[in-house]
Amino acid sequence: MKTVIKMLITLSLIGVVSGGLLSEISKWAEPKIEMHRKAATEQAIFLVQPDAKSYNKIENLDFELYEVLDENNNRIGFALPYEGNGFQGKIRLMFGIKSDLKELVGLEVLEQVETPGLGTKITEEPFTSQFVNLIAEPKIEWVKGVAPSSDNEIQAITGATISSKALVEIINAGLTKLRSVENGGNL
Q: Which parts of the chain sit beneath pLDDT 50?
């Protein structure tokens, strides 16, 4: 009986100390993680909108959106970070779109936990380059095993169809949200 009590006390102490340490590490790391996430977002704006010279964050929206400007401070489009579910977890991406909301300019995957070697191909150049100059009207579609036959289609990655499809769905959801804001006259 004494042995059981000693084990319970020891395990309780280990649990309290471990929990306290994890809490302190989390408090220390949280601002640093947020700072790196913000820096990655700012860098991605210029990757998805290569002609951009500056940007403004559009406030008073329930999602994150950046207005992208040229050297004369004229709006050339938007950079929209958006996220959704992938095959194994959340995918956070940013895409650039022209001001008329009809044509994508670029795509950058910011965070993902897809299957290494398969799903992670959504971050690689052959796949992401399909989204440059892609027509986003009425919505983006994906095809599998054949070459795209329309201006609004991309080819899904063989062996990573779910990740490819998820990425297209995330972009379409972001575009729907963006168009609803535009239709409401808030852009």
A: none
